Amino acid sequence: MADKSRCIMLFDSVHDVMRTEKLLKDRGMWCDLVPTPRQLSSECGMSVEVHCRDAKSAREFVSADSSLTGVYRIDGEQAEVILS
Amino acid sequence: MPDNQRSAIYLDNAATSWPKPDCVASAVRNHVLNYSANPGRAAHRMAANASRVVFDTREALGRLLGVSDSRNIILNANATMGLNLVIHGLLKPGDHVVTTSMEHNSVMRPLRWQTEHGGVSVTMVKSDRLGRTTPEQVKAAVTDRTKLVIVNNASNVIGTIAPIAGIKSAIGEIPLLVDAAQTAGVLSINVEEDAIDMLACTGHKGLLGPQGTGCIYISPSVSERIKPLMQGGTGSNSESDEIPSGMPDRFESGTLNGTGIAGLGAAVSYILDRGVDAIREHELALADRLLAGLGGIPGLTEYGPEDPRERTGTFSVNIEGLTPSEIGFELDRKYNIAVRIGLHCAPEAHRSIGTFPQGTVRIGLSALTSMDEVDAVVIALGEIAGRKTSG
């Protein structure tokens, strides 16, 4: 059975969302800008979704001083931090 | 647009540059027609595109100004807004500020407000008749209460360039706020190399963008000390009623001028493609021709430094026996040449160069001014001066 979980990079600032999208796309990594899942935040903004298999390398590309809150795995109603 | 405007020789670029590169109009049109959604507030694809153009513009400005992390560039409406943010957001009662007599009212008026209502004291270093201020003069005015030094990167009246890197070296750790309204896009600027703490730009002059756009670079060493003058929606941390502390959101409450920013981004890309150094060379060639032409007109005085390399493409003149308004009116109505007359929002600068209160006729060149346009204004001023001499 296919894994239905999604991996989401959550940031405090839209600037870092845009910067991360560019960074990942420049490196040829798939990503998408998506509404922040309600399991993570009441935030009205957007987040970066990546393939879960890429989550670790995506986290490494993002600079240490970014406003990344964490990388989360969303599975149904469950959300867990997999990288921070 | 009326036809007589289309054929105008426009030399009022120190106020607002015109024409703009074609790509600016295309970018504004494309934004309005295709993706003028709210940047940073939603994740639908149109809003994402609107957010991307804001990000791209910020990045382009970072490349132009020598800012490695473009988060530290705040997008706003003009240089005045950035200057006010720092002056009203950083200063506290008892603080002292050093500035120069070449400042625009966008600095002079908020400082006056602070001296009258904010308990701040100001020392204004007087520039010489050519608009020059030295790092030594600025340093000599610094006291142990000095919390800010503000310097106009180049005079909006006579174009004189201030030695901002030298001034920063002279004042050490005291934050330096540079007003780059007249220099961004026309002079090479690198805030990180020159250790400039804050640099305010406007989009509608040398950056060749639309009116109502601008930015200010604020270095991380001072950003937390500056109060955000406005608080509101940022698209981030919406669950909290506290303004986010991170850059750029801390200073960007409310929906940005997305359409203008799209135009500004296109303008900055044009400048980066053409190269600031190439634009500077173009303006220097125009300046050489203009200064040679003006020098041959009897009764005409030109006020700035003789060497065009010490100034931007902004020139102030007077003709003996005529007021600036008479000259400006004749240039407009008889020759279809647009210039600016008067005090150019900088009365102290005119006191320094000896042209207060009558002011001057100001000729402002741009990256898109042609040699023919320079020749036309020289011929026109020669005829106007000639009629005065013979009449």
Question: Explain this structure to me?
Answer:
The complex is a heterodimer of chains A (84) and B (391). Chain A is an alpha+beta fold. Chain A has one domain: Alpha-Beta Plaits (2-Layer Sandwich). Chain A has a five-stranded antiparallel sheet, with helices on one face. Chain B is an alpha/beta fold. Chain B folds into two domains: 133 residues, Aspartate Aminotransferase, domain 1 (Alpha-Beta Complex), CATH 3.90.1150.10; 253 residues, Aspartate Aminotransferase, domain 2 (3-Layer(aba) Sandwich), CATH 3.40.640. In chain B, strand 3, helix 5 and strand 4 form a beta-alpha-beta unit. Chain B starts with a helix and ends with a helix. The model of chain B has no long low-confidence stretch (mean pLDDT 96). Chains A and B meet through helix 1 and strand 2 of A and helix 3 of B.
Q: How would a textbook summarize the main sheet of chain A?
A: 5 strands, antiparallel
Query: Number of helical segments of chain A?
Result: 2
Radius of gyration of chain B: 21 Å
Number of beta-strand segments of chain A: 5
Kindly report the CATH topology of the largest domain in chain B.
Aspartate Aminotransferase, domain 2
What global shape of chain A is seen?
A: globular
* Mean pLDDT value of chain A: 89
Shape of chain B: globular
- According to CATH, the homologous superfamily of the largest domain in chain B is Type I PLP-dependent aspartate aminotransferase-like (Major domain)
Could you name the CATH topology of chain A? Alpha-Beta Plaits
Low-confidence stretches of chain B: none
Question: Mind telling me which CATH architecture of chain A this is?
Answer: 2-Layer Sandwich
Q: How would the blueprint of this fold be written?
A:
The complex is a heterodimer of chains A (84) and B (391).
Chain A: E1 6-11, H1 14-26, E2 31-35, E3 46-50, H2 55-61, E4 68-75, E5 78-83
Chain B: H1 3-6, E1 9-10, H2 22-35, H3 45-65, E2 73-76, H4 79-90, E3 96-100, H5 105-117, E4 121-125, H6 135-141, E5 146-152, H7 164-171, E6 176-179, E7 198-202, E8 214-218, H8 220-223, H9 258-274, H10 276-295, E9 300-302, E10 314-319, H11 324-335, E11 337-338, E12 340-342, H12 347-353, E13 360-364, H13 371-390
Parallel strand pairs in B: 1-11, 3-4, 3-5, 5-6, 6-7
Antiparallel strand pairs in B: 2-8, 7-8, 9-10, 10-13, 12-13
Helix pairs in contact in B: 2-9, 3-9, 4-5, 6-7, 10-13, 11-13
